Structures are given as structure tokens and as C-alpha cells.
Fold this sequence. Notes:
The chain is α+β, with helices and mostly antiparallel strands. The protein is built from five helices and five strands.
Amino acid sequence: MGIKRSTLYYKPKDKKETDIKNKIKDISYKHPYYGYRRITASLRRDKVIVNHKKVLKMMQEMGIQGRIKHKYITTTNSKHNNKIYSNLVKDQELTGINQVWCADITYIRILNGFVYLASIIDIYSRKIIGYAIGKTLSSKLVIAALNMAIATRKTDNLIHHYRSGDSIYL
């Protein structure tokens, strides 16, 4: 007859499967953060009976993957009752090193938590002149960074400026 044997066993994709794929596409465009579990739940709410494994397989075939939401961690508390010092650097013109130092504290994510980095930067040369790394956010960390900076540079008539806008004379 001239017909291949594989054509006897071929089953055309039924309309139900293409409808489910179209619904999966629609849901994933409306909600890009949904994974296969949420899409399955959404399909079930729409009275479509489908297994989560089938939804996962269809999403993989179509190349659809849910985006991951990243948590935003607030690290700065600007609403405090502490004294706010005036900015002594605002209108000052810098002519050399050791006139203004700036301090900053940041955190670095590691496998089992965070470590904190306190740094002292010379504003004119933009070089880090003191730093300290610690597991806790304590005053000892900042003092260690400041002591390192004082040991390496002269501190005559120096302004030490914090990133929050506070300044003090040393």
C-alpha cells in the first residue's frame, strides 16, 4: 500500500491538550511569578482537571518558567530620635588628602548569613584607608576601622563624615 507503519500508531494531539497549553500561556503572561503549582491551582479554579506533573511537562515543552521573587531587605533606619549633626562638608572645596573622611557600613551575604564591612574612605583620593569585617553590627567594628585609618594617616584638622549626612571634627 505504500503507507508507513508509524502512521497507523499516530495519535493526533487532541484539542483539550492545546486548550490547556493556551490557558497555561495566558496564566503565565498574567502572572509571571507563578510556577507550575500555582498554574495548576489556577487551572483547577477554572474547572480544568489536570495533574501538576502534566502542567510541569507542558511548561517545560513550551519553555515557560516562573520568575523568582527576591526579598528586599531594609537595612537603613532613617526614622530615629538620635541627634542629627549638620553637614560640615556641603560647601567645602577639597584641595588634598586627609581633609574629609567618609564612613560607611554595608553587609555582605555569605552562605550561612551576613558579615558586616565598615570602611573609612578619604574623599579626595577615594581610597579606603581603614576597614574592618565582623559577624555582628557593633560599635567595635566601626572603631576598629577608624583606628586603622588613624594609624595610617594624619588627622590634623580632619572632618569625619558619615553617609547619613552627619559630620564631626577630629
